[in-house]
Amino acid sequence: MLEKLGEPRSVMLVDDNRVALILSRKIIEKARVFKEITSFQSPSKALRHLCEAEQGKHLFPDLILLDIQMPELDGFEFLTEFKKFPPQYQSFCSIFVLTSSYDDTDLGKIREMGNVNQLLEKPLTLETFISLINELYPAYDYPMRNYRSVR
Amino acid sequence: MPSVKVLYIDDEPSNLDSFNASFRRLYEVFVARSAEEGSRVLETTPIHVIVSDQRMPGITGVEFFKSIKEKYPDPVRILLTGYTDVQVLADAINHGDIYHYIAKPWNSLDLQQSIANAYEAYSAKVALKDKVESLQRSNDELNRFVYSISHELRAPLTSAKGIINLIKLEDLYHSSGNYWELMESCIKDLDDYIHNILDYYKNSRLDAQTEKIDFASLLYKLIELHKNADPGGAFIRFNTDVVQEVGYCGDKFRVELILGNLISNAIRYQNPLESQQWIDVKISVFSEYVLISVADNGIGIEKKYQDRIYTQFFRAQTEKGTGLGLFIVKEVLTKLNGTITLESEPGKGSRFQVTLPNNCG
Q1: Which residues, listed in sequence order, are joined to residue B194 by a DSSP beta bridge?
Q2: Among B296, B304, B289, B276, residue whose Cα is nearest residue B339
Q3: From the CA of A21, how many Å to the nearest CA of chain B?
Q4: Cα dihedral across residues B171, B232, B268, B151: positive or negative
C-alpha cells in the first residue's frame, strides 16, 4: 500500500520534444528535491514504466509532468490510461500538465479528465516548480524552499 | 438553356395537357394532378421551378408551397390564381413562400417569361449557396491552419524561452555581452506576434459571450501580467481607480483583450528619458456602459499618425510592437459596439478612452 510520502522521491517527465524534456529535467535538478528523475519521449514507454513500477520493479513516481500535445499518444489518452491504475496509485501520484498552447479549449478538456492537479505554462520555471513542491509537501524542508527569482 | 425541370400541378387534366403541349419542347416537364402527386415527383427529381394552381381540392397552392418550403427550399415557386384571393397571395409573397404569381387563365408567353426568370433566380440562389459553402469551408481551413501553425510555432519558442531562463539561473546571461538579451527580445517579439494573430482569429471566430466581470481583479491581473512581461515594467508607477458600484456584464475574453492591449502599449511606449514614468487606469462602470481610460506620460503619438494607428501593421514607431495591437482593439470594439478615442501629444503622453455597453440589463 502506497501512501503520500512526506518528502518527494521520484518524478516522471513525459514530453515528445527532446529539448523540452531536457529543460524540465534541468529545472527539477536545480530544485534538488527528487532522488530520481525519469524522462520519456514516448508516452507508451512511460506507461509501460508505470506498469512495471506497479509490479515493484521501479519506484512509482509521486509526481508526473505531462505534455498534452504529443503525436503518438496524446496527453488525454495518457490520462485515460492512467485512470486504470488502482486508486491508491492514483491518489499517491500527482499529475501536472505542461502546455505551450495559448488556446484555452484544452483547459476545459483537462478539467473534465478529473485527475490533473493543475495546468502549468511552458517553459517550466524554477519558481513555479518550487511553489508546486511547497504545496504538495508542506512539511518538507529543503534548501531551495524559500527561493524567489530576481527579475 | 440547360434542361430546366419544371413541375406543374393542377387538378384539371385539360390544363395539364395544354401546359405539356406549350412547354415540353422548352423544358423537361413533370405534371401532377394533386399536391400529393407533386410531392412524390419532388422526392425523386431535383425540380428547378414549380408551377402550381391555387385552387385544388383539399389543399391550396399556397398551403402546398408552405408545406414543402422546409424540405425543398431551392425550387422556385410560381402560383397560378384568379384575382379573388388577393390577401392570401399578398401574405404568401410577403412570407417568401412564392416567387411570382400568374393570373388565370394563363397566357403561354407570360408563363414562359416567368419560368425563365424563375430559373434564373433558382440558378443565382444555388450559385450563392455554393459560394457561401465554399467560403465557409476555406474560412474553416484557414482558422485550423492558423491555430495549428501557431501551436507548432509556440512549442519551440517556449523551449527557447526555457533556455534563456536556464542561462539566467546559471548566471551566464551577461557572459556574452548583450547577445542573450538581444536573443530574448527577439523571442519576446515573436511570441507577441503569435499572441496577436491568435487573438485576432479568436475575435473573428468566437461568438460574443456575456458574463459578469469584476474590473478591479481583472485590471490587477492584467497589470501584473504585462508589467512582468516587459523589462521596463518594474520602473513604472501604476495608478488605478476602479469605480464599480453596479454589476457589469460583457464578453470577458474581448474586454481583457482591449484592456490588455492598452496596458501593454502604455508600458511599451514609455519615455525612456522620463524620471518618473506613470500609467493611470480609470474604470467607471455605469448601468448602461463602462468607461475605460488608460493614460500615460510616454512618448505620445504625432497628430499625423493618430488616424492610422488602428490600421493593420501600422506602427508609429518602427522598432516596437507588432503593428497589430490597436488593429485588434478596433476589430474587437466593432464586434462589441464600443468606441475608442485618443488624445495624445508627442513627448507628453497619450490617453485612450474606451466605452463598452453594459449588457446586464
Answers
A1: none
A2: B289
A3: 9
A4: positive
Which is nearest to B67 in space by CA: B108, B87, B95, B104? B95
Contact at 8 Å (CB) between A52 and A85? Answer: no
B-chain CB neighbours of A151 within 8 Å are: 228, 234
Would the pLDDT of B329 be above 60? yes
Q: What is the DSSP string of B214-252?
A: -HHHHHHHHHHHHHHHSTTGGGPEEEEEEEE-S--EE-H
Mutate to test the interface with B, among A25, A97, A102, A148 (most CBs of B within 10 A): A102
* CB-side neighbour CA atoms (13 Å) of B82: 3
Average model confidence (pLDDT) across chain A:
88
Q: Do residue B159 and residue A27 have CB atoms under 8 angstroms apart?
A: no
Say whether B154 and A151 touch across the interface (CB within 8 A).
no
pLDDT digits (tens, 9 = 90+) for B18-62: 999 999 999 999 999 999 999 999 999 999 999 999 888 888 888
pLDDT in tens, B2-12: 689 999 999 99
- Which residue of B165, B198, B234 is in closest CB contact with A102? B198
- Residue B154's closest chain A neighbor by CA? A100
Of B155, B156, B228, the CB nearest to A151: B228
- Judged against a pLDDT cut of 60, whether residue B1 lies above it is answered with no
A28 Cα to chain B: minimum distance (Å) = 11
Nearest CA in chain A to B149: A101
DSSP state letter for B276: S
ipTM of the complex: 0.86
Dihedral sign (CA B126, B132, B135, B140) = negative
What's the predicted TM-score (pTM) here? Answer: 0.64
Q: In chain B, helix, strand, coil percent, each to 5? A: 50, 20, 30
Contact A149, A126 (CB under 8 A): yes
